[in-house]
């Protein structure tokens, strides 16, 4: 089996420049890979002071170029499995679309996230909140055109979700997407095992957005941005789980199905990011 590790420091999907550095730090701390793994980096646009909304999507032109670059790289390597180190959540669009086309009806997605990411430009301009909707065939054509084999909603489980906004609630209520609350995740993995069995999922991709974690227990999250206050996050659901809770679910998922894709996203190690910036201002540490 040929595994491809993709370092994808995309940041404009979340319109937050620190996502780029988060992906770069993830690449540094991730375990070493085996001999069957190749590592590639998707080039992204350098952060700028102004990220404009273009036809409803923040940074549309840059995102389109970066998604195309990822598509070209993955197509060239033609991997059997993919591990993605992001960046904002949009990094998983092209890799998961590749796996859906490769594994067809046996493919499913476990979306470990506090948020469902099923909005469109009509509700919200930042495309990291559009990615799961696009994988299931709903959203802006710039995103959905990259999904040749749409993932049926019944083969998607969002675990860790709570307090969706009005649009998300209405969308999910009408969909066949399986939902598991943080409290249900804490009590056991039965919903996961039953879903994999009932949907006959033989090959699974796992999206792990770190904001599923409780910001009072895991600190490298957007909600702990030292430059913002609680008012900046009013109305936005925050994670409730501990890291061990999520790892347990991933372990059980790997026992019940072949895990062929993993995406780790939205890591924001604030102290490291601030220290890196400070070091760039110290004599003898820069060119």
Automatic annotation (TrEMBL):
Gene3D superfamilies assigned to the protein according to its UniProt record, in alphabetical order: Ureohydrolase domain
Pfam families hit by this protein: Arginase
Top-level lineage group: Bacteria
Keywords from the named record: Hydrolase, Manganese, Metal-binding
Coiled coil: none
InterPro entries: Ureohydrolase, Ureohydrolase_dom_sf
Recorded GO MF terms: arginase activity; manganese ion binding
Record SUPFAM superfamilies: Arginase/deacetylase
One CC-aspect GO term: cytosol
PANTHER family associated with the record: ARGINASE
Homology family: Belongs to the arginase family.
Protein name stated in the entry: Arginase
Lineage: Bacteria, Pseudomonadati, Pseudomonadota, Gammaproteobacteria, Enterobacterales
């Amino acid at each position: 089996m040929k595994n491809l590790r993709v370092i994808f420091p995309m940041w404009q999907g979340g319109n937050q420049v620190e996502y780029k550095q988060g992906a770069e730090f993830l690449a540094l701390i991730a375990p070493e890979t085996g001999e069957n793994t190749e590592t590639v980096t998707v080039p992204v646009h350098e952060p700028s002071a102004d990220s404009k909304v273009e036809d409803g999507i923040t940074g549309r032109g840059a995102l389109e170029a970066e998604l195309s670059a990822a598509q070209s790289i993955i197509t060239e390597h033609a991997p059997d499995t993919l591990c993605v180190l992001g960046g904002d959540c949009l990094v998983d669009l092209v890799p998961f679309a590749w796996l859906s086309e490769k594994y067809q009806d046996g493919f499913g997605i476990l979306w470990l996230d506090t948020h469902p990411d099923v909005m469109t430009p009509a509700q919200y301009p930042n495309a990291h909140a559009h990615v799961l909707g696009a994988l299931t065939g709903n959203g802006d054509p710039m995103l959905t055109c990259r999904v040749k084999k749409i993932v049926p909603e019944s083969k998607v489980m969002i675990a860790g979700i709570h307090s969706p906004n009005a649009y998300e609630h209405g969308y999910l209520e009408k969909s066949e997407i399986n939902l598991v609350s943080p409290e249900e995740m804490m009590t056991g993995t039965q919903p996961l095992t039953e879903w994999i069995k009932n949907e006959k999922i033989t090959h699974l991709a796992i999206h792990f957005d770190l904001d599923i974690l409780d910001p009072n227990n895991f600190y490298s999250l957007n909600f702990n941005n030292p430059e913002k206050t609680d008012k900046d996050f009013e109305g936005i659901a925050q994670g409730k789980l501990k890291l061990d809770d999520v790892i347990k679910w991933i372990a059980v998922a790997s026992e019940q199905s072949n895990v062929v894709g993993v995406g780790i996203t939205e890591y924001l190690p604030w102290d490291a990011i601030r220290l890196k910036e400070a070091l760039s201002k110290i004599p003898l540490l820069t060119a």
